[in-house]
Batch of 2 targets.
Target 1
Amino acid sequence: MSGKKRKILIVEDVELNRAILREGFSKDFDILEAADGWEGITIIEQEAQDICAVFLDIIMPELDGFGVLQELQNKDLIREIPIFLITTEAYDYIIDRAYNYGVVDIIPKPINIQIIRRRVLNIIELYNNRKQLETLFNQSQGMILNQDAILEQTNLNVLELLGNAVESRSAETGSHVRRIRRITEIIARDMSINFPTYGITENKIQQIGTASLLHDIGKISIPDCILNKPASLGRLTKEEFEVMKTHTTSGCKMLVPLKDDPLFQFYYDICRFHHERWDGKGYPDGLKGNEIPTSAQIVSIADVYDALICKRVYKPAFTHEVAVKMINDGDCGLFNPDLLQSFDRNADQIYSEIYKNDFDTASFKL
C-alpha cells in the first residue's frame, strides 16, 4: 500500500462509542463513520477494497446490525471484511446468530479499547494474510495441477505455508503440520506392510502425507475468540463447539480451487473426515468403521497424538506414555484396531524422532 493507511468503518448511532473507537484506532487507520445501517452499507459498497474492518452496532434506527449483515450477505461482501459486532446484550442466541452470519468477534458495551485493540489488530492481520494466501493459492494452481510436479519442493512449500498460516492462528508452532505429515507417513508405511488389504502403496503414502498438510485449513474461518479460548475461561460452550466443528466443512469449500488436482480426493477426505471416529461418534457426518476413508483415519490418530503431547491454550502437555495410553484406552474416541496396532508399533519411534528434543524449534525437512 506504499504508506497508504487502511480504513476502518464504524457503524454506530451513538457518538460517544464512535469517539472511543475513533480514538483507539485513528493512529494506525483512516476512520470512516456511519450513524445508521443504510449509510454503513453505502460506504462499504464504495470503499470495500480499502476497508479492513467494520465495527457494527446491533441496535440502530432505520436498519439494525442484523439487517446490515443480511444485506452484506446478499451482496456477497461479508466474507471479505472482518466484522466486529458491538452489543450490550451478549446473549447466546445473539452470539449464535452473529457467528452464523460470519461475524468474527463480539465487542461488549461499554467499550474498553485497551482490551479489544489487540484482538482487533490480530484479526485484521489474519484477514490480510488470508488474502495473500488466497492469491498465492490461485497462482499455484497451474503448478499443482501438474501430476509430475505435485511432490516437488516448491509445491510442498506452498502447502506447508497454507497449513502453517492456519496453525499460527491457534497459537501452535509452525512445525505442527510437518509433524503431522511425518507421523502420517510412518503409520501409513506400517499399514502398507502389515495390512496390505488397505491398498496403501508407496505412492499413496507420499500422497496422504502431502494432503495432511491441509487437514485444518478450515480453521481460517473460525473466530479467534473460539479458536484460542484459554482454559481459564472454561471449556467451549455447546454453541462455540458447533462453530468449531465447522472447520471441517468450511475447509472443504476452500479446497474447491483444487478440484482438478490429482490429490484432491485426499485433500477433501482428510479435511472433512479427520474428526470422525471408529464408533460413529465423531463429526461432521458421524461416519463409522471403514466408512471413514483410510487417509483420514491415519491423519486423525496423528493429530490426536500431537494434540496430547503438545501444550495448547486449553491444556498442558501430556507425557508420551500417557498420550499413548489415552489413545489406546479410548479417552480420545475409538480408532480402527488395525490402525492402533500400526500406531503402537511405531509410537516410540515417532516420539524419539519428532518430539524427544525441543520440537518447538526443531526443523523437519519435507
Target 2
Amino acid sequence: MLDRLKALQTRPYLVALLLGLAAQLLFTIHLDRPSRIMFDEVHYVPAAHALLDLEGPRNVEHPLVGKELIGAGIVLFGDNPFGWRAFTTLAGTATVLGAFAFLWLLLGSMRAALVGAVLTAVNQSVYVQARTSMLDIFLGAFLLWAMVVMLWAMKGSPVQVRRRWIGASVLLGLAVGTKWAAIPYVALAGCAFLVIRLRDARRAKRPLRSAFPGTDQPHWPGLATIPGLLILGAVSMATYFATFFPAFFYERDPLTLAGLIPLQKEMYALQTQVLAKHTYQSDWWTWPLMIRPIWYFYEWDQGAQRGVLLIGNPVIMWGGLVAVLACLWAWLRERAIGPLAVALLWIASLAIYVVIPKSLGFYYYYHLSAIFLCLALAVAFHHFDRGRNKGREEWFVAAAIVAFLYFYPILAASPLVDAQGFRKWMWFPTWP
C-alpha cells in the first residue's frame, strides 16, 4: 500500500481523474430515485423552469447561479429527475476533488489528500445534496474551489499569482451568486490574506507596515496587499452582479440596472423575514451533535416504500469534532498553522449561523461545516502521524465507509420492506 502511494505521489492528476470518475459514478447510480420532486426541489426546479422560459421572477430570495445550473441540466438531459439533478452530481464530484486538491496543496501528502477526499464522498451530507436539486451543493463546490485556487496562488510568478487570485475571486462571486451564505467567506478570505501577510512580516522581523505596500512577499509574490484586497472585492462583486444577466430578459417584470440594488434589498427582506415554525427546524448547536436529521422524501414510489434522509455519517460527524479539538491542540502546543486553519474554518462556518439574522435553521445549513470536518480529520491524522505511516487513518476511513453502506438504503431511496422499514436506522428519539 505504501509503495503504491509513493508511486502515485508524483501523479496527482491521474489520482484526481480516477477519484472524480469514482465519485461521479457513486452520485449518479439510481439518480432517478425518487422519481418525483422531493423536499426543497419544489422551490428550485420550478424556479429553473421559470429561468429557462424567461417568464419572470421566481424564488426571489436567492440569487440565480444555482437555479441556472439546474436549468442547464434540464436543457441537456430533459425535464426529469436525471435532468433536475445532473449538475448537482457534478457539483458533488467537484466538492470531492476540491477536498483532494486543497489537502494536496496544503500538505503535499497523497495519503492525506485521499483520506480527505474519500471522507468527503461518504460523509452523507455531500452524497444526499449531490443527488438533490438544491443550492447548497453548488455553494460548497464554489467555496471549496475558491479556497483551492487561493492556495494555488500563494506560489508562482507574479502573472500566475494575479491570474489565480482573480480566478479565486470569480469563484467567490459565483458562490455568493448561489446563496448569500457565502458572503462571510469573502470577508474571511480577505482576513486570511491580511493575516498571512502580517505574519510573514513578523517572521521576517520587518515592521508590520511593510506587509502592505511591497510586492516582494513570500506568499502571493507580485501582489501587493491593498490591490489584492481591492481585486478580491471588486471581482467577486462584479461576478455576483453579472449572474443576474438573464433577469434583464424576463417577459414579466424584467430587471433593469436601476432595479438591481432595490432587488438586493428585497432579497434581504425575504431572507430575514420571520417564518412560521417548521417540523424539521433546528438550532445551530444541534447540528454538530446530529440531533435533528431531515427526511427529504419518504413515500411510496416506483412500486416500493422509499426514503431519503439527510443525516450525517456518525463516524465523520462525531469523529470530526475530535479532529477539530486535536487541530486546536496542535496549534496551542506547537503553533501548527495548517491544523489551526482548518479548525478555524469549521468554527467560522458554524459561527456564521449564530450571527446571521435567520428566523429558522435547518440541518442542511451544516453542509459546509461537514465538508470542513473531513479536511480537519485528514489534517489531524497527517499532523499527529508525523510521517510514520501507522495507518490509523485507513482504519478510520474504513469505518466511515462501513457506516455509509449501513445508511445507504435511506440515503439513496432504496426499496424498504414496508412503511415502518426506516425504524432500524433510528438510533435516537429525535431522529425522525
